[in-house]
């Protein structure tokens, strides 16, 4: 049993103001793997006060010194790879190879991207007779999710540190262990006390306290749209900046002239991380002439997707994160069946031979129509919906027929059509023909997928205020 009840405040590991234990459940076994404490108002206030006291000194620290500390953090992060992977495996159910590579690796990748972006980031430029400065916004509350924990912690903490902000991190209480390891890494790297603070808690408690705190200048949140709305309302009274990275219901538009691997690639992408990615291509839309063949390929791909223990090496998927998520996904699969969608693969219940753990059968629905619940709601599990379309105009209309707008996908060998589609779909990102976005490319969405952008120079700007100074020419 791992016991991690302390918080990291002002450069020290400290006991919570009041005992409030919470069990962390290993979703592969349904057993308690760790215990943490949930913070209360006194803990939140102490962490914010530490960040506030550290802000002026950190903001005035020369950029070269901040960069040196970030590089040191990266070195320590690399030495803690196995510890981080094991924490992620236990807390949210990523199979160990995914935890060690994709989950841990996403943090390393983004850190390198920010260091590269900093080399060309201009904190002060000349515009005629004015100087335009980028200055750190202040004390930031970073509220991160359980599905890609290090991806999101690094996307927030590193740019905030880089530009001179101080912060309080509240990771998901469902998956807090990797963030505790991250706090240990920050401590070992030698950042000044108060620059980075960590308080565990739930959304109703510490999350709300940070969102409404008068000494917090900005909230950066990744999670559900429902929670993002609540955070925005809580932050409104103090008019703090709120940056939101929320849900998605990505359309994967596959034209008849798409490459032969497009359908299989789409299924694998949807099932990755057990379907627990906001940018997953969960609505596959296939040109009608290619629809019958696509169903055959999708069925085979889903049935070939292995589900297995998180301690086992391999390319299989693990469980979903919690009993709550498991039950929600089962309910949505049941709704899909009741509303008339055709189950091509998977379906209700656990995979064969599994009677414990929050494992979900990789599921593919065919003949899904826009009036169905599974077409509209973010399922956040290994569930794919497939729908035919007839024309390019219809494909655009269907892709945009959602409250979300995070990532859409287009598969066609016609470059002009590919670009037309990319320009017409309403989403912050469009990936085409299986080509991923480059390091430092902005991540974020339209509509109820949130606001703001993370990654690279856009992620640095997110934590800055802009100041115009007249009459002082640059030397």
Number of strands: 23
Mean pLDDT: 97
Shape: globular
Count of helical stretches: 15
Give the termini distance in whole angstroms. Answer: 60 Å
InterPro entries: Ald_DH/histidinol_DH, Ald_DH_C, Ald_DH_N, Aldehyde_DH_dom
Organism: Shimia abyssi
Keywords: Oxidoreductase
Pfam families: Aldedh
Task: Give the helix/strand layout.
Layout (H helix, E strand, L loop, with lengths): L1 E3 L2 E3 L2 E3 L6 E6 L4 E7 L3 H19 L3 H17 L1 H12 L3 H25 L3 E4 L2 E7 L2 E5 L5 H15 L2 E5 L6 H13 L6 E3 L4 H10 L5 E5 L2 H12 L4 E5 L5 E4 L7 H10 L11 E5 L3 H14 L18 H16 L3 E4 L17 E4 L6 H4 L6 E7 L2 H9 L3 E2 L1 E5 L3 H10 L4 E4 L13 E2 L2 E2 L4 H7 L1 E7 L5
Parallel strand pairs: 1-5, 8-9, 8-11, 9-10, 11-12, 13-14, 13-19, 14-17, 16-17, 19-20
Antiparallel strand pairs: 2-3, 4-5, 6-7, 7-23, 12-22, 15-16, 18-21
Helix pairs in contact: 1-7, 2-4, 2-5, 2-6, 3-4, 3-6, 4-5, 4-15, 5-15, 7-8, 9-10
Structural summary, described in words:
- The chain is α/β, with parallel strands linked by helices.
- The chain folds into two domains: 267 residues, 3-Layer(aba) Sandwich (Aldehyde Dehydrogenase, Chain A, domain 1), CATH 3.40.605; 188 residues, 3-Layer(aba) Sandwich (Aldehyde Dehydrogenase, Chain A, domain 2).
- The protein is 41% helix and 21% strand.
- The protein has 15 helices and 23 strands.
- The strands form six sheets. A seven-stranded mixed sheet has the order 15-16-17-14-13-19-20, with helices on both faces.
- The longest helix has 25 residues.
- The N and C termini lie far apart (60 Å).
- The model has no long low-confidence stretch (mean pLDDT 97).
- Pfam families: Aldedh (PF00171).
């Amino acid at each position: 049993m791992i016991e991690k009840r302390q918080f990291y405040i002002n450069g020290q590991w400290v006991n919570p103001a009041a005992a409030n234990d919470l069990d962390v459940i290993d979703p592969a076994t349904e057993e308690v793997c760790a215990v943490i404490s949930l913070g209360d108002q006194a803990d939140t206030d102490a962490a914010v006060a530490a960040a506030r006291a550290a802000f002026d000194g950190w903001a005035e620290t020369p950029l070269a010194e901040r960069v040196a500390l970030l590089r040191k953090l990266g070195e320590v992060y690399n030495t803690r790879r196995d510890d981080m992977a094991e924490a992620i495996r236990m807390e949210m159910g990523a199979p160990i190879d995914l935890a060690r590579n994709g989950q841990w690796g996403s943090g390393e990748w983004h850190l390198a991207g920010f260091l590269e972006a900093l080399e060309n980031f201009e904190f002060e430029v000349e515009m005629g007779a004015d100087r335009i400065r980028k200055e750190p916004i202040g004390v930031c509350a970073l509220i991160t999710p359980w599905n890609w924990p290090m991806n999101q912690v690094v996307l927030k903490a590193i740019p905030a540190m880089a530009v001179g902000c101080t912060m309080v991190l509240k990771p998901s209480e469902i998956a807090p262990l990797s963030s505790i390891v991250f706090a240990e890494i920050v401590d070992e790297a030698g950042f000044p006390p108060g620059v980075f603070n960590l308080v565990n808690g739930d959304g109703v408690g510490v999350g709300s306290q940070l969102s409404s705190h008068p000494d917090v200048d900005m909230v950066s949140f990744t999670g559900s749209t429902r929670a993002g709305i609540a955070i925005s309302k809580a932050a409104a009274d103090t008019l703090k900046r709120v940056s939101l990275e929320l849900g998605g219901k990505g359309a994967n538009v596959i034209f008849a002239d798409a490459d032969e691997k497009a359908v299989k690639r789409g299924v694998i992408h949807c099932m990755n991380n057990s379907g627990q990615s906001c940018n997953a291509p969960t609505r596959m839309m296939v040109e009608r002439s290619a629809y019958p063949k696509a169903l055959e390929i999708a069925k085979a791909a889903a049935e070939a997707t292995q589900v297995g223990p998180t301690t086992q090496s391999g390319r299989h998927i693990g469980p979903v994160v919690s009993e709550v998520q498991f039950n929600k996904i089962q309910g949505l699969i049941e709704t899909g069946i009741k509303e008339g969608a055709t189950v091509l693969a998977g379906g209700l219940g656990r995979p064969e031979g599994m009677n414990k753990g929050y494992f979900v059968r990789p599921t593919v629905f065919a003949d899904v129509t826009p009036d169905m619940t599974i077409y509209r709601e973010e399922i956040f599990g290994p569930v794919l919906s497939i729908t035919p379309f007839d024309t390019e105009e219809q494909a655009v209309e269907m892709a945009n027929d959602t409250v979300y707008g995070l990532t859409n996908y287009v598969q066609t060998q016609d470059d002009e059509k590919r670009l037309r589609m990319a320009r017409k779909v309403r989403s912050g990102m469009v990936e085409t023909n299986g080509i991923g976005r480059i390091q430092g490319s902005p991540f974020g969405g339209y509509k109820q997928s949130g606001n703001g952008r993370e990654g690279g120079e856009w992620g640095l700007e997110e934590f800055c205020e802009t100041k115009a100074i007249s009459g002082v020419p640059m030397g």
